[in-house]
DNA sequence: GGGTAATGAATAA
DNA sequence: TATTCCTTACCCA
């Protein structure tokens, strides 16, 4: 579930429960055995997120770079501190897996499986397990997972566009404006381009464009400066909500009923995302789905004319 | 039990 | 533009 907000939340979780601790690193699945051995037993010094990338800095200037890709996920067990006042601890995002573990234990009728035990046995294909005395973090299905040096971290960072969290400055906004407004590329593609702006994925892309009432096919250079600045500021705004709540809430400012429903059900959460064929919440026109660079793009052809 | 989609991006061509 | 990689959840039977 990784757009920028998730990655920032995960980095915050590591900051809370891992930074300053000696960390045992292993690869239960085996595919990251060498990398895990490099950092095993080192103390975590810093946790950073930029866009969809996370960097964990250990002693000796060794960095673990993680990119979750489309289905990577971290699960936390044990001591999992709340990271914002508005959300449960991140461990709750791992709750489905926890429930599945409970089901498995029940169906297998193995009373000796102690679900409260620490550390819990790894379930599934755990590429990396990071563990302190009190907390376990399991990573599955990442697109990138590697131990690198500071120079390589800098190389990765150099090709990332501004992230509103690390870069909420007028200069960052100007950089975003300039890179959008010089390109003939459809704005719907530009928003997904991590070298132009960090952290936006397929959900936020569709929702940002709808909120701006912008046609996704509009060439970047044809979007007015005011509109581009509004896009940046809306991303700043939505990302903050996402980090605080742990949800991609884009229908804020609506009635309390609508907002409550959005928090409760995914199907009531978005303006256009995954609403192909359903009536637009504003004008009742059928929401359209089309493939743009092989990703599903949802938009309202009437409001985003 | 099988098939598919999924909040992503690198690479080849 | 097409292919490849990574893993799980959900839907259907």
Question: Could you state the CATH homologous superfamily of the largest domain?
Answer: MutM-like, N-terminal
Q: Give me the secondary-structure category.
A: alpha+beta
Q: At the first level of CATH, what is the class of the largest domain?
A: Alpha Beta
Strand content: 15-25%
Parts with pLDDT < 50 across at least 5 consecutive residues:
92-113
Q: What is the distance, rounded to the nearest whole angstrom, between the alpha carbons of the first and last residues?
A: 30 Å
Q: How can the largest sheet be summarized?
A: 4 strands, antiparallel
Could you estimate the helical fraction of the residues in percent? 25-40%
What is the CATH architecture term of the largest domain? Alpha-Beta Barrel
The H/E string reads: HEHEEEEHEEEHHHHHHEE
Can you offer a commentary on this structure?
The model is unreliable at 92-113 (pLDDT under 50). Helix 1 packs across helix 8 (225-245), helix 5 (170-181) packs across helix 8 (225-245) and helix 7 (202-211) crosses helix 8. The strands form three sheets. A four-stranded antiparallel beta sheet has the order 1-6-7-5. The chain has a four-stranded antiparallel beta sheet with strand order 2-3-4-8, sandwiched between helices. It has a two-stranded antiparallel ribbon with strand order 9-10. The protein is globular, with a radius of gyration of 21 Å. The longest helix has 21 residues, at 225-245. The protein has 305 residues and is α+β, with helices and mostly antiparallel strands. It folds into two domains: 4-158, Alpha-Beta Barrel (N-terminal domain of MutM-like DNA repair proteins), CATH 3.20.190; 170-299, Helicase, Ruva Protein, domain 3 (Orthogonal Bundle). The two termini are 30 Å apart. It has nine helices and ten strands. The structure holds a DNA duplex (13 and 13 nucleotides).
């Amino acid at each position: 579930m990784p757009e920028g907000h998730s990655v920032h939340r995960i980095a915050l979780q590591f900051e809370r429960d891992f930074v300053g601790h000696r960390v045992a690193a292993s690869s239960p699945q085996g595919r990251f055995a060498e990398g895990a051995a490099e950092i095993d037993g080192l103390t975590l010094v810093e946790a950073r997120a930029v866009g969809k990338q996370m960097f964990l800095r250990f002693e000796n200037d060794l960095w673990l770079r993680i990119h979750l890709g489309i289905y990577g996920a971290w699960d936390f067990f044990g001591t999992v501190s709340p990271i914002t006042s508005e959300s449960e601890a991140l461990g709750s995002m791992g709750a489905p897996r926890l429930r599945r573990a409970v089901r498995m234990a029940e169906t297998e009728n193995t009373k000796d499986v102690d679900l409260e035990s620490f550390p819990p046995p790894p379930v599934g294909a755990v590429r990396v397990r990071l563990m302190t005395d009190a907390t376990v973090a399991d990573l599955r299905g990442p697109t990138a997972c590697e131990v690198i040096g500071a120079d390589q971290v800098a190389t990765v960072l150099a090709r990332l566009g501004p992230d509103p969290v690390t870069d909420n400055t007028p200069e960052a906004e100007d950089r975003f404006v300039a890179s959008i407004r010089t390109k003939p590329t459809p704005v719907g593609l530009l928003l997904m381009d991590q070298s132009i702006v960090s952290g936006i994925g397929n959900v936020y892309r569709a929702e940002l464009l709808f909120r701006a009432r912008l046609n996704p096919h509009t060439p970047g250079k044809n979007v007015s400066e005011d509109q581009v600045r509004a896009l940046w500021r809306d991303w700043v705004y939505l990302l903050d909500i996402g980090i605080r709540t742990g949800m991609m809430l884009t229908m804020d400012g609506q009635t309390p009923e609508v907002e409550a429903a959005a928090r409760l059900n995914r199907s009531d959460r978005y303006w256009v995302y995954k609403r192909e064929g359903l009536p637009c919440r504003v004008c009742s026109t059928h929401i359209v789905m089309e493939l743009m660079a092989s990703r599903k793009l949802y938009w309202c052809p009437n409001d985003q004319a």
